[in-house]
């Protein structure tokens, strides 16, 4: 803005004819001097005008360079909604309608709808106490259920509910899990319905020492938090596929609470345990 004020002052003062005194009555000496004086004045005025223009241009140019350039707009690509891994919220939303709460006497656990006819896959120790079994669906409706098949050696059981919910959403059963893959556990730990935790597969082919019962081999080890009440719930990959059935946690104390190590029966082994051929249970 400084250049806008300076240029008019310089140009106006030097270009104003009234400001330059010209003798009107002195007779010319040789007919050439007045012309020379006028030429010199014109040259002087022209030179000053040129310098004023140059100075003005320099000031304007410097002023323009002094202003910071606008930062370029960087386009951030949005993640694709198809073919990529799902986040925990998307996995939760997709699988929660397939998760049920199971009570059998004083025992509380979790199960997952594994087929379109409403069959529930769960851990055997949740329902193997001989008590009446109740299944509570995600919509809050309840129904009695009975054990359709059981394999205590693999801690897996299949329940057949008497009634189905108004909207039945069976889970998608996946394949093998890999070490380091992201997993989500959904269950009812300590009676807290619909709890979701996340972690990774920590190891494969673990064997669980069950004391007086036969060891439980071939388990998935994971670090998503689980606690009593989570048993029988689904272990899910980042494609919203059930890859295991939660059956146990490790704790060297008698507290029976989670300290970072959980175990699940791989889904293939769970299905094979209840029908003997590694396929979907007879639903």
From TrEMBL:
<feature type="transmembrane region" description="Helical">
    <location>
        <begin position="43"/>
        <end position="61"/>
    </location>
</feature>
<dbReference type="InterPro" id="IPR009003">
    <property type="entry name" value="Peptidase_S1_PA"/>
</dbReference>
<feature type="region of interest" description="Disordered">
    <location>
        <begin position="16"/>
        <end position="36"/>
    </location>
</feature>
<keyword id="KW-0812">Transmembrane</keyword>
<feature type="compositionally biased region" description="Basic and acidic residues">
    <location>
        <begin position="26"/>
        <end position="36"/>
    </location>
</feature>
<dbReference type="InterPro" id="IPR001940">
    <property type="entry name" value="Peptidase_S1C"/>
</dbReference>
<keyword id="KW-1133">Transmembrane helix</keyword>
<comment type="similarity">
    <text>Belongs to the peptidase S1C family.</text>
</comment>
<dbReference type="Pfam" id="PF13365">
    <property type="entry name" value="Trypsin_2"/>
</dbReference>
<dbReference type="InterPro" id="IPR043504">
    <property type="entry name" value="Peptidase_S1_PA_chymotrypsin"/>
</dbReference>
<dbReference type="InterPro" id="IPR051201">
    <property type="entry name" value="Chloro_Bact_Ser_Proteases"/>
</dbReference>
<keyword id="KW-0378">Hydrolase</keyword>
<protein>
    <submittedName>
        <fullName>S1-C subfamily serine protease</fullName>
    </submittedName>
</protein>
<dbReference type="GO" id="GO:0004252">
    <property type="term" value="F:serine-type endopeptidase activity"/>
</dbReference>
<keyword id="KW-0645">Protease</keyword>
<keyword id="KW-0472">Membrane</keyword>
<dbReference type="GO" id="GO:0006508">
    <property type="term" value="P:proteolysis"/>
</dbReference>
């Amino acid at each position: 803005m400084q250049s806008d004020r300076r240029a008019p002052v310089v140009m106006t003062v030097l270009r104003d004819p009234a400001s330059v005194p010209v003798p009107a009555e002195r007779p010319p000496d040789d007919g050439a001097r007045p012309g020379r004086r006028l030429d010199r004045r014109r040259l002087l005025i022209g030179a000053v005008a040129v310098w004023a223009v140059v100075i003005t241009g320099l000031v304007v140019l410097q002023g323009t360079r002094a202003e910071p350039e606008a930062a370029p707009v960087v386009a951030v690509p949005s993640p694709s909604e198809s073919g990529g891994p799902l986040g925990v919220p998307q996995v939760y939303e997709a699988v929660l309608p397939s998760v049920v709460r199971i009570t059998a006497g004083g025992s509380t656990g979790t199960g997952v709808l594994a087929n379109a006819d409403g069959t529930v896959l769960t851990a055997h120790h949740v329902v193997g106490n001989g008590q009446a079994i109740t299944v509570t669906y995600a919509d809050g409706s309840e129904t009695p259920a009975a054990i359709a098949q059981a394999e205590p050696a693999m801690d897996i059981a299949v329940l057949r509910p008497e009634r189905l919910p108004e909207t039945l959403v069976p889970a998608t059963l996946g394949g093998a899990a890999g070490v380091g893959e992201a997993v989500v556990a959904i269950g009812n730990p300590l009676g807290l319905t619909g709890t979701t935790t996340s972690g990774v597969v920590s190891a494969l082919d673990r064997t669980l020492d069950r004391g007086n019962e036969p060891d439980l081999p071939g388990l998935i080890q994971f670090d998503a938090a689980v606690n009593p009440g989570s048993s029988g719930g689904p272990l899910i990959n980042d494609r919203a596929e059930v890859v295991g059935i939660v059956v146990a946690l490790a704790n060297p104390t008698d507290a029976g609470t989670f300290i970072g190590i959980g175990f699940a029966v791989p889904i293939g082994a769970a299905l094979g345990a209840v029908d003997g051929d590694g396929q979907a249970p007879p639903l």
